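A sample follows:
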Amino acid sequence: MGCSGRRTMLFRLIYHSRNLLRRSSGSSELLKIVRSAERNNLALALTGALLFDKHHFVQVLEGDRSKVTSLFIRISQDPRHEALSIIEAKDVTERVFPNWSMALIERPSDAPLDLAALSGDQLLDFLRNQLAGSSGSIAVAVPVW
């Protein structure tokens, strides 16, 4: 079978981190993250979702392994968050967020959900439910903290 008959393997990385955005600048910094993600993810053919509240980030990145890995290395050096923990990193056959360069989801901080304790599959299910009925390159809900 030639290259044209092979299905391209994708890579998915899910991580959790502690949000260091200050309330006073959180909305403007989040907007910078959104604009940067839209530009970079479209150029790199990456898809995914970013879930945040005033304490945490959880991000799913999907695409070519080397591109996802390079982006994660850059993300891990970003001073707007700390204590990064990889929840899942694996090869997959299809994207969970094929229509999203980045879906941005704000989670109310009083919602009873321990993001750090969820498995990769549980987080993906949660994010899919949050995005049900939506599609596009970016879903933006800029917080008013």
About this structure: The radius of gyration is 15 Å. The chain is about 30% helix and 30% strand. Residues 1-5, 135-145 have pLDDT under 50 and may be disordered. The domain at 9-139 is CATH 3.30.70.100 (Alpha-Beta Plaits).
